């Protein structure tokens, strides 16, 4: 298990660099007059390229997420209710506080549908950042952040399924349920059943990526570990960077940047990621510790603020929710600017706080 965790952390660190590179390319592409939006709108069969990435390829990403959640619940950090309680409480705090701050700042105005954007933690960027810091961050703190991110993913999946579904078809949903039962009954046929399940979920009105999570949770642990081992590099180094390439491009010309900087939506997202995650995770964790909880072995309390700030790097899932929340391109662009700014600020604050904590330890 320890070896699997270390391998997972290494891949997430490298994936973070790949996502960063794809983001830079997307921004250059979108601002170089090369018709970024036109390319991703190209029709290819029943979907355009953008939807092939967001609906189909991202289902593989969520399949890996589902497999990781299943492994942690059955044979990992979330197996014991006692050890799972603290990161679960921290993650809930890190979801609720950004929502409260976002709603308070946005009011009842334009952009309210994006209330969930600031809830997410990007596991690749966040874990990658603390891994790059090396032994300045304790192993316990890394495990704590990873566990928070996993619980955060569970909450994000529920939010997407419940609040961002449109025109749900009971018939297709029934077909998806039948296919899910068949997958549980015959996991050896998981590939054709997973494809059929994706089609049924897509047609049901629930976002098709949820099919990936369902498959991950239904596969037996032994088979799931084999599938995860094979798919995780593809998810980390192909799927998620492609998602960043297809979604991170914002053309800052034509007043887009100035409009975003004057938009209440942008600053509500920044505040949710930076302030909401920091206060929510730190506050919930401290409350749980006073109630008798305990930090993971080796983690110092002085590292808590740095870990909480780092969790404000929302990026991948935040971008994903922004695309689901808005049809208005101007709102999507403002949301992306807020996600970029909030994630960068959170990352800087996290590094500084963890560096200060490390210095205090060595003095």
From TrEMBL:
Cellular component GO terms, alphabetical: plasma membrane
Keywords tagged on the record: Antiport, Cell membrane, Ion transport, Membrane, Sodium, Sodium transport, Transmembrane, Transmembrane helix, Transport
Record protein name field: Na(+)/H(+) antiporter NhaA
Catalytic activity entry: Na(+)(in) + 2 H(+)(out) = Na(+)(out) + 2 H(+)(in)
Classification lineage: Bacteria, Bacillati, Actinomycetota, Thermoleophilia, Solirubrobacterales
Record's bilayer topology term: Multi-pass membrane protein
Signal peptide: none
Record PANTHER family: NA(+)_H(+) ANTIPORTER NHAA, SODIUM ION/PROTON ANTIPORTER NHAA-RELATED
Primary localization class, coarse: membrane
Cellular compartments annotated: Cell inner membrane; Cell membrane
HAMAP family hit by this protein: NhaA
Purpose of the protein: Na(+)/H(+) antiporter that extrudes sodium in exchange for external protons.
One annotated GO molecular function: sodium:proton antiporter activity
Family: Belongs to the NhaA Na(+)/H(+) (TC 2.A.33) antiporter family.
Xref: Pfam families: Na_H_antiport_1
GO biological process terms on file: regulation of pH
Transmembrane intervals: 12-29, 88-108, 114-133, 154-185, 191-219, 231-250, 265-292, 304-326, 338-357
Gene: nhaA
Source organism of the structure: Solirubrobacter phytolaccae
InterPro entries per UniProt: Na/H_antiporter_dom_sf (IPR023171), NhaA (IPR004670)
